[in-house]
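[09:14] KT: can someone run the structure on this one? pasting the chain below
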Amino acid sequence: MSERAVAIEAVERASQVCKAVFKRLVTDETLTKKDKSPVTVADYSAQAVVNSILEKHFPNDPIVGEEDSKDLQGDAGRVLREKVVDLVNTATDAPMSADEVLRAIDRGQYTGGSTGRHWTLDPIDGTKGFLRGEQFAVCLALIVDGKVRLGVVGCPNLPYDISKQTEDKGVLAVAVEEQGAFQRRLGAPDDVETPVLVSIVEDACNASFCESVESGHSNHGDNAKIAELLGITKQSVRMDSQCKYVAVARGDADIYLRLPVDSKYVEKIWDHAAGNIIITEAGGQVSDIDGKPLDFSLGRTLTANRGVVAANANIFATVLAAVQTTLANKE
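[09:31] RB: done, structure tokens below
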């Protein structure tokens, strides 16, 4: 199987596990208590599923993953470990033992870098969206010599058609370098892939933002000032996770900004690798707030970059200038 086919299978199965976790473990009581344990189970389970599939097909490829198994070890981790093993085995061809599950999770401890090939995985991007039953994503990318070559994003709750919010949910987006970006229905392997393209809006005043539901990862106040500077009056499309990249890639919205909320915060590569290539292959542009490409060659974090700006190519330069003007006025 090709890297593309394996990545799609891995994301499909991990998305299936996440949906099973939500159905089994997320309740009204969970949300009332702000209990994040279902996310924890889903994170570990999805990472084990993806890593085991990657190991089967590409045993020499290291993985930069978000999780490690330390909280699942020993007597203290027994209850959580048993839940994770149970969930993992709903999505594997052959049963995995607890030791095999833990080892699969710990395959995600690679440090990354600029040479050779490795994968990067965010098993659940958008934990709050997941708990609300709204947008979250399973995100997997292949990086070769520091450059993203392949990205797959599974969005279990994203409508296939954004104008039909209550039906046909579940999207898988995939892009390979220089081969374009595509989407198909998640959980429907026989569904025909269709190309996705960014919007053709030519004047930023006619554009719309895709923003996080909450402001923890990007400064909504700055976004509002940038919108005012650009003359944007359209209501923002709001969702969590790398689903935002998919939304911009297929033209549901025109601009995605992740503006720094903390001068010390450094973005993780798994939060952006897959989404980055999906937007660029759909005809969009992505940079940091200084106009530099995102550099995935420096390990597990984007240490050379600050924030993220993504838009269609027609308005990208105008949007970037507005971002820089707004942020400069704060200093």
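[09:33] KT: thanks! The mean pLDDT is 93.
[09:34] RB: yep, looked fine to me
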